[in-house]
Amino acid sequence: MPGTQIKVFDKIVQVIEVLATSSHGVTLKEVQDASGLNKGTAFRILRSLESHNLAAKSPDGTYSVGNRILWWASSHRHSPDLSRLVRPRLEKLRDLTSETVVFNLLIGDRSVVVEQATSFHATSTRFHLGDSAPLYAGATGRVILAHLDPERRIRLLGQRLERFTERTITDRKRLERELSRCMAQGFAFSEGERLYNTSSMAAPVFGPQRRILGALAVSGPSERFTPEKRKSIIPLLLRETRLLTGQLESPALAERRAVGAR
């Protein structure tokens, strides 16, 4: 019995490896071919992984790693030092805007929620830590996508672009224009592109060597994101992302600031 259990675990690891090393969703047949498992075994393992949020099945029938695995990955990268730097920024922006503020990391080819300061409004946008989304859908992912190297960006835009709502941008030429706008103005705005009645404004956060690390985003019900409110959020958001980037680009300086604040 123990030997049998170990063999089953080996097969599970094989399937997870197939999902984790693919740059796109994989079909059941592709899992079979890559793992050497028969169709029934591969299907049962995928269903079990899906029930534990270790695999996710898309509407087109393909599979990818689930939010739980992405959360484990983000937890590994999301050190206490990073949390200490990010948390005050989120809470300050939340208090200034009265809306939920989220910090997302770029993990693989997806944007993953790793920190959140939730709005005190009775009606507000709330995310689960570990929630992930493709980079083309919504302000948070799009502002990250805009700052990837051109080759990687082209590869991602060449994949199938799933529509989440009627507002999701799936036209590649229009996406390219939006990405250029992100680069020019330093932030992105979206309204109902991934979640109905939810608007977001996001700006990029960079790490050492100015590599894109993730994004800060202010999110809330679309009816509260009036043109006047969006205009008031922009300088606040850009200021906090600029300050956070400054800390993350210079770990030694960030440590001195943290010690000085104690």
Q: In a few lines, what is going on in this structure?
A:
The protein is 50% helix and 18% strand. The chain has helices at residues 2-20, 28-35, 39-51, 67-77, 80-97, 139-145, 150-157, 172-185, 227-249, 251-260; strands at 55-57, 63-65, 100-107, 110-117, 132-134, 188-191, 198-206, 212-221.
Secondary structure layout:
Layout lengths: L1 H19 L7 H8 L3 H13 L3 E3 L5 E3 L1 H11 L2 H18 L2 E8 L2 E8 L14 E3 L4 H7 L4 H8 L14 H14 L2 E4 L6 E9 L5 E10 L5 H23 L1 H10 L2
CATH topology of the largest domain: Beta-Lactamase
H/E order of the elements?
HHHEEHHEEEHHHEEEHH
Proportion of strand residues: 15-25%
Largest sheet: 6 strands, antiparallel
Structural class: alpha+beta
Radius of gyration: 20 Å
Instruction: Give me the count of strands.
Output: 8
Q: How many structural domains can be distinguished in the coordinates?
A: 2
What is the CATH level 1 assignment of the largest domain? Alpha Beta
User: Mind telling me the CATH superfamily name of the largest domain?
Assistant: GAF domain
Strand order of the largest sheet: 5-4-3-8-7-6
Determine the oligomeric state from the structure. single chain
Put simply, the count of helices is 10
Low-confidence stretches: 256-262
- Span from first to last CA? 55 Å
Name given to the CATH architecture of the largest domain: 2-Layer Sandwich
**Shape designation:** globular
The percent range for helix content is: 40-55%
Mean pLDDT: 85
Any descriptors?
262 residues; alpha+beta; Arc Repressor Mutant, subunit A; Beta-Lactamase; six-stranded antiparallel sheet; two-stranded antiparallel sheet; disordered C terminus
